[in-house]
Amino acid sequence: MATKSKLVFFEKWVSPVAERMLKPQSNIDLIMLKYSRPEAENWSELATAHGYQVQARTELKAPWFGNGELLKRCPGLVALSSTGAGHDVIDVGACDAAGVIVVNQSGSNREAVAQHTLGLMICLSKKISLADRMMRRSSVPAERYALAGNDLTNRTVGIVGIGHIGTRVAELCGGLFGMTVLAYDPFLSSDQIAARGAKKTNLVELLERSDFVTLHCPRSAETLDMFGTEEFKLMKRSAFFINTARGGIHNEEELAQAIARAYIAGAGIDVFLQEPTPYDHPLLQFDNVVVTPHNAGITHEALEMMASSAASQWIDVFSGKVPPRLVNPQAWSRYSARFKEIFGSTPAQLPQ
After folding, report:
1. How far is CA 207 from the centre of its chain?
2. Which of 37, 43, 214, 245 is the most exposed place for a label (fewest CB within 10 A)?
3. Which CATH code is given to the segment(s) 109-287?
4. What residue stretches are annotated with the D-isomer specific 2-hydroxyacid dehydrogenase catalytic domain (predicted)?
5. Cα distance between residue 83 and residue 86, in whole Å
6. What is the distance between the alpha carbons of residues 187 and 209, in angstroms, rounded to a whole number?
7. Where do the structural domains in the chain lie, given as residue ranges?
8. Tens of pLDDT along 265-282?
């Protein structure tokens, strides 16, 4: 009899559609773990699991990160899946070494994050958040001419990382407002970036020319603290900095200093190193900083898409197919050997 695939997850999926898709699968045993249970019970279930659906960083609790220690204690794991596009809660290098594949849900929340990015740009440029605060704080009527902002039309937006979300931001900015769209992405050619609606530049030129700098790159060893004092000083004093990607790509303390010293006009921040973010965080003290609690990608439509994407990929993985959003194809050879050893059949070959 073929081995039944055991898939574990903590608490709940971001949408019930995932369980509706997975429970009817006769070859998948779906197990819910709970943080409130003793660690030993959770480790016991994980130790015999073949797949682990990892929660997003905001909800995920230690010690359940997809790291080398977890892989050592769970020798049967063949695959880990992130909740969304970001997979910084999973140690891909450790997975490569262990012959474990990683999948993410890239593109599933592109519309939600791109629209949120545009919302932050409009909110900052038109001083919407500031106007709202002024009207709520005082019985004295807000002086509307003192709240004059700027149109987005014919401005310049600089996109750092033009993947699924960055491309959609380029489409919206260029199509809706006729903005000049610049992009910095060292992994793409000028022609590839042009096909996505932007002009390729180096980072310095992007910072110097842009009225809005918006981040859409993953957090990695290469991008950690990518933006600090020197980068903010290169930006226009009238420019706004937007991050709906991941906390840690910008240095939070240096961003606060840059705003305090008026190196830039303000910022729109959806992501922080510590989430949930404490109310006394320095960036929350500025009227020209608009913050949201890492909910750029949280819409009903996006959550359903993320969950259905993850469930569909698990069905593919345990059916021996190549999942469409494979993060580490370099692990496929070793993964294939382990898959055959565990399940008795060889998975499909990677497409050339």
Report:
1. 22
2. 37
3. 3.40.50.720
4. 22-328
5. 8
6. 21
7. 5-104+300-343, 109-287
8. 999 999 999 999 999 999
Q: Provide the H-helix boundaries in the chain.
A: 17-22, 39-47, 68-73, 92-98, 110-125, 128-137, 164-177, 190-195, 203-209, 229-234, 252-260, 300-318, 332-343
Which residues have CB under 8 Å from 352's CB, separation 6+? Answer: none
Q: How many Å apart are CA 236 and CA 210, to the nearest integer?
A: 7
pLDDT at 1 over 60: no
82-126 residue pLDDT tens:
999 889 899 999 999 999 999 999 999 999 999 999 999 999 999
Q: Are 273 and 248 in contact (CB under 8 A)?
A: yes
Equal fold, 5-104+300-343 vs 109-287: yes
Reference 18, options 26, 6, 27, 30; nearest CA is 30
* Cα separation, 123 vs 150, whole angstroms: 10
- Return d(Cα 182, Cα 244) in angstroms, integer: 17
Give the angle 80-1-337 at the CA atoms, nearest 5°.
45
pTM of the model: 0.90
Q: What is the mean pLDDT of the chain?
A: 96
pLDDT at 142: 84
Rounded distance between C-alpha atoms, residue 158 and residue 332, angstroms: 36
Q: What pLDDT does 3 receive?
A: 77
Q: What is the mean pLDDT of residues 17-25?
A: 98
The band of 352, judged by pLDDT with boundaries at 50, 70 and 90, is: confident
Residue with tokens 């004092």: 229
Catalytic residue positions, numbered: 246, 275, 294
DSSP letter at 285?
G
Q: How far is residue 341's CA from residue 337's CA, in Å, rounded to a whole number?
A: 6
Distance CA 345, CA 336 (A): 9
pLDDT tens string 200-224: 999 999 999 999 999 999 998 899 9
Cross-strand partners of 199: 182
Residue 320 near residue 27, CB atoms below 8 Å: no
CA-to-CA distance for 22 and 8, rounded, in angstroms?
A: 12
